[in-house]
């Protein structure tokens, strides 16, 4: 009996073993759970915006061992740090690179097991299609919510003064209190150990802010407490530079822009009237060459604000 001829065929490529990487799943889940802590911090305000949220008045002393280590390598360590900002930076700097790494690994594994065509179909079904469907819905919802909120704010807070919202936010931080011109709130924050000599990311002191928003009483109080009027911002401007110029359309436009960014309806008439008073106070203080002694802190140990 004649045997049938052997049929030769090319060997099939080796198939990768289908394996569930439980360790990577757990790592990804842990990173997502850290997002709860991250967004809980954001609920107080964006870290890195000094004065815009209560946590920015909370600063802990840098441990001595850290300061000594920094000095040993020629680095000047800060005297205080925000625990909220430190936690936010640590989590955010870890989570996002981890997500990219894990996502790249699973994408490469999907490509090797299914091929390029199936990978593109899978990604289009899981990512592109939901994005195309829900992006317009999300935008319509957000814009609608913003519109309703703007109308509600206009109805509730429409009054001839610096926004009612500014007065309500004065309790949030000492910077908000200075913006609102609430001297009692400023004193209250100092009693809670707020830093009267703090500077924001533009290098501005509380005196700069009080001058810009034209609050003479708050300015005088800060000067009496020893805030230096000669300190310059990163742009090289003192508090006097903020209010010494004449009122014009350009300055009025700047106030409108700032008010819009801060969501405050500023009383431009009051600001226009009080700017010369602020300039006179600063000129008198500079010409006298006097500077009040800095605020003397008590001897109680510093604690973070509750």
UniProtKB/TrEMBL annotation:
Start and end residues of each stretch annotated as Disordered: 282-306
GO MF term set: acyltransferase activity, transferring groups other than amino-acyl groups
Domain Acyltransferase: 22-152
Transmembrane segment boundaries: 26-45, 90-111, 131-153
SMART domains referenced in this protein's UniProt entry, alphabetically: ANK
InterPro entries in alphabetical order: Acyl_transf_3_dom, Ankyrin_rpt, Ankyrin_rpt-contain_sf, Glucan_succinyl_AcylTrfase
Keywords in alphabetical order: Membrane, Transmembrane, Transmembrane helix
Protein name per the record: Acyltransferase 3 domain-containing protein
């Amino acid at each position: 009996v004649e045997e049938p001829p052997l049929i030769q065929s090319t060997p099939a490529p080796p198939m990768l073993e289908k394996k569930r990487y439980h360790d990577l799943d757990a790592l990804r889940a842990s990173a997502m759970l850290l997002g709860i802590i991250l967004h809980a911090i954001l609920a107080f305000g964006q870290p890195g915006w000094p004065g815009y949220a209560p946590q920015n008045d909370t600063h802990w002393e840098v441990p001595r061992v850290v300061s000594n280590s920094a000095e040993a390598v020629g680095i000047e360590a800060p005297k205080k740090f925000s625990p909220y900002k430190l936690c936010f930076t640590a989590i955010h700097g870890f989570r996002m690179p981890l997500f990219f790494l894990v996502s790249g690994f699973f994408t490469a594994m999907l490509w090797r097991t299914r091929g390029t065509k199936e990978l593109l179909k899978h990604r289009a079904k899981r990512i592109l299609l939901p994005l195309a469907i829900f992006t317009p819905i999300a935008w319509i919802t957000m814009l609608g919510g913003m519109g309703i909120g703007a109308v509600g704010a206009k109805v509730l807070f429409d009054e001839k003064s610096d926004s009612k919202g500014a007065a309500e936010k004065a309790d949030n931080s000492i910077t908000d209190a200075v913006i609102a011109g609430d001297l009692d709130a400023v004193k209250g924050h100092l009693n809670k150990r707020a830093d009267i000599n703090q500077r924001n990311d533009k290098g501005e002191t509380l005196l700069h802010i009080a001058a810009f928003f034209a609050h003479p009483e708050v300015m005088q109080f800060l000067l009496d407490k020893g805030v230096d009027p000669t300190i310059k911002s990163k742009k090289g401007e003192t508090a006097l530079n903020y209010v010494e110029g004449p009122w014009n359309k350009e300055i009025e436009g700047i106030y409108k822009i700032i008010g819009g960014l801060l969501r405050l309806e500023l009383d431009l008439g009051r600001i226009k009237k009080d700017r010369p008073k602020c300039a006179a106070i600063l000129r008198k203080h500079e010409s006298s060459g006097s500077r009040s002694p800095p605020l003397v802190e008590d001897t109680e140990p510093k604690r973070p604000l509750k």
